[in-house]
Amino acid sequence: MDSARSEAGQGNIVIEGLEHATTLMLRHVSHRGGFSMTTLSVMARLEREGPARLTALAAAEGVAQPSMSQLVQRLEREDLATRVGDPADGRASLIALTDEGRALLADGRRSRHARLADLLAALPPEDQAALALAMHVAVPVVRRLLDQAAQPQAPGAGRARTDAP
What we know:
The chain has 6 helices and 2 strands; from the N terminus they run ααααββαα. By secondary structure, the protein is mainly α.
């Protein structure tokens, strides 16, 4: 097998593995509690990065500002987020996660961890050991992929070539 074919095969197995992991998490582990993925993503971003302007949240999540405004209003009605003054600009406000919002995210995290622990416990010990070993190698790489994916891309960057044989 030549080098190009070998690299393509490795890429395919990585893509397939990531797709399976995504399916596992989204379909069998994730409990969204009636919230959309975008809503949970916004809440997680606020927890991770702290208060942010509505326009910055919309841009970071790739949604239109009016849509983000509606999402934030729902979070405010449910006491999961609140508006606070922007210390850098007294005329502007920032969106911040409330203690109730943090608790909801923590409950979801605990639920996911418990579900994953149950699934892992059902595996034979040798599969658990193999998965642990693979994760020691894969997790740092996946973190770098997440960091890379969070960076803005130039138009057309990262798209698959359509003229490949």
